[in-house]
Design brief:
Blueprint: H1 2-17, H2 19-36, H3 43-68, H4 76-94, H5 97-120, H6 126-145, H7 158-162, E1 164-165, E2 169-170, H8 171-188, H9 191-201, H10 203-208, H11 213-239, H12 250-260, H13 272-291, H14 296-319
Antiparallel strand pairs: 1-2
Helix pairs in contact: 1-2, 2-13, 3-8, 3-11, 3-12, 3-13, 4-5, 4-6, 4-11, 5-6, 5-11, 8-9, 9-11, 12-13, 12-14
Amino acid sequence: MHDTTKTIGQRFARFLRGELGLLVILLLLCVAFANVTPFFLVERNLLNITRQVSIVLTVAMGMLCVVLSGEIDLSVGSTAALCGVAAAWGMKTSGSVWLGIVMAVAIGLLVGLINGTLVVYARIPSFIVTLATMGILRGVCMVWTNGKPISSLPESFATLGAGYMLHVIPVATVVSLLLVAVFYVLLQRTKHGTYIKAIGANREAARLSAIPIDRYRVFVFVAAGLMCAIGGLITASKLLSAQPTANAGLEMDVLSGVILGGAALSGGIGTVVGTLLGSMTIGVINNGLNLLNVNSYYQEIVKGIIIILAVVIKRNKGTK
């Protein structure tokens, strides 16, 4: 009897660690919030959740690539903010929305390239590199804007962050889901995804398999920079304003979503679907706590606990 109970418990634990288990947890959270606040299941709020999650989900796709390779990027929030500032400055200076978008993408790619180059060729741990660039880029935002927001952007730019398709679905939601589809194909249906996971799982084995390790390690940071640019554009578009302090703490939500989705910080393990569910879970928690008027400081505590629990569960999974 004891062995049977233990076996059932082990199976249940494995179920909770999987994507289906995370989906069940997400649904239970929705039911719980629906019971404590009448505003949660309102159509407008549900659509608002998807819009809010779109930024986290977009950046999480890039972070997933980095984590799968066995690295980490703590500069995603500052990178997104800088890209938003660059886009706003370009639009205000030239009057061209497209020039602003190009500037944001170029800066996102450049930051990713710098991060990747320092990690791979200067051989500085990614934690140190991105911790440094996190502070540097935030400082650049402050210097560039003099600590003030760049507002009154062209109305046409609002479509990305505040517009709707068919008058119902937020454009930002559609963009993020399209990116999820792209990364699903890239990471789980092509050799490139296999190579990235192999590098994170066993770098020496990947080297012996003739995988161009350095090239892929730089690539994942460039991909993260590009996703930060898109996330920064969505943020600026939503408010028609670029704040130098925008996306502060974004790295916390992104890492929470990626780790909760089953990715291992040691590399080699993680899925796009898991990251999607993890990001949605974080979005539902944020939204529900906001509706309950929970202090933002307590929300940070909750997300920190979630990260610790997710890492503990993942570690225990690996030891069985």
